[in-house]
Amino acid sequence: xxxxxxxxxxxxxxxxxxxxxxxxxxxxxxxxxxxxxxxxxxxxxxxxxxxxxxxxxxxxxxxxxxxxxxxxxxxxxxxxxxxxxxxxxxxxxxxxxxxxxxxxxxxxxxxxxxxxxxxxxxxxxxxxxxxxxxxxxxxxxxxxxxxxxxxxxxxxxxxxxxxxxxxxxxxxxxxxxxxxxxxxxxxxxxxxxxxxxxxxxxxxxxxxxxxxxxxxxxxxxxxxxxxxxxxxxxxxxxxxxxxxxxxxxxxxxxxxxxxxxxxxxxxxxxxxxxxxxxxxxxxxxxxxxxxxxxxxxxxxxxxxxxxxxxxxxxxxxxxxxxxxxxxxxxxxxxxxxxxxxxxxxxxxxxxxxxxxxxxxxxxxxxxxxxxxxxxxxxxxxxxxxxxxxxxxxxxxxxxxxxxxxxxxxxxxxxxxxxxxxxxxxxxxxxxxxxxxxxxxxxxxxxxxxxxxxxxxxxxxxxxxxxxxxxxxxxxxxxxxxxxxxxxxxxxxxxxxxxxxxxxxxxxxxxxxxxxxxxxxxxxxxxxxxxxxxxxxxxxxxxxxxxxxxxxxxxxxxxxxxxxxxxxxxxxxxxxxxxxxxxxxxxxxxxxxxxxxxxxxxxxxxxxxxxxxxxxxxx
Length: 618
What we know:
Number of helices: 19
Low-confidence stretches: none
Number of strands: 22
Shape: globular
Oligomer: single chain
Mean pLDDT: 93
Radius of gyration: 26 Å
Helix content: 25-40%
Strand content: 15-25%
């Protein structure tokens, strides 16, 4: 008898099983192929806009993704550094072979965690409660909780041209037993589609016709307080090229041979990561599209052709590739394909990611309609955390929209649902100035420590870091400079404008050109790390905006804190609009705030619900 069984060893499953095992729950991971634990069948990268911040949030809560990414990266870049702090995000080019290898080693060494290489045929259900799983070989395993993280494997089919093959990513076996059972249990399933571009031989590319994109010239980490290092000059570069008029002509002429436009595809594809043929149809005014050439591994002579996802037949892919500058003589080592699979309507889940209709059954990752490794991993982590907390009869961890991008993602899924693969974007977060790359530790490490996932040494470093930030702010507020000749000459020599009035260094930092670290030029006994200076600088320069954002968040929190009973009877509210009743009964929001985000529920409906709750509580 296990505490938790996790089905699927992808990015969601990896985080889920590690979280439950580290929270002292006897856990079983059932996955089809041990070598495909946390595999990267598509883009060999971690992070990027919004996603990079999620990686930091996972780390702050005690997850594994950030550490694994740091240890297996072959290039690091901080994106949007010249822009505001709300949109900065770290992106790593990962080693496609080392990333899953290290995660597999981590899982196999983890205490309280058993791993079974097998496929689950069905769930064992008793009185609307999951009590275990039955494998394809007939063996049964029982548990208090089951977490489904099947990724893109559930009833998956690979599409190339007009052909359709029952298969998972990278020629792996699909999961066929769960879909019909879930439908019989009342879960609404729908088809989604994603795809992957061709890989070409590195030595067959003429990089002189492309634009170089190297890694940053300073050490960067996803994981907070990491002391690991790497050879900056040894990073593997990426390259930028573009589609041409010839590329577009080839695609348009053969559009009817694409699975996307031949009628072969049933599922809905990702809006924000479309196939190249979909780009041409949707953006006919664009003369060219960016194509990034990205290394997949130190050990592979393969380049990932980012931005060139397609489901065209192989012979057409050859023509398409050779029409791109730098790829005229490129040799394809792996052809592109599309894949479609079953996902569930995430509105059938509570914010804990537990199913509403089947007790103790949780879902996480692409089975919930998301796209991306990072989106999957954070769901797996939260499902594992909440399954463990529930076993211990503790309150769940539900992150609010002003606390984390993870909170935004899960709230969007369980409240609004999705009809296409959901991708996390900075624009989805109304509090994005509060949800930054630099402050994920201060937002979430308290939770990570409280639930027992965050290692004590990292938490102590966090407390030290926070103390240093506060100490530096105090120093800056009490240290004043006066407008004499000596001071102004020093300011000018440091690239700053002279001052006319006595001012604190705290106020001086509000100037765009002034760095917090420059105080070291005025005080001999003061020195802090770069991350402390950066945090203080952001807090001071954006103080007004941050305070305004906090006030807006506090105002919205009043609605988030107003609970709606799970057993509330919406039919008893006679003046409630019919559409609102239908939507509310389907989503069953837990707070007034969540109810306001349901499409079709209007302010007048919210007012009626609020009055009804207050009346019932008297």
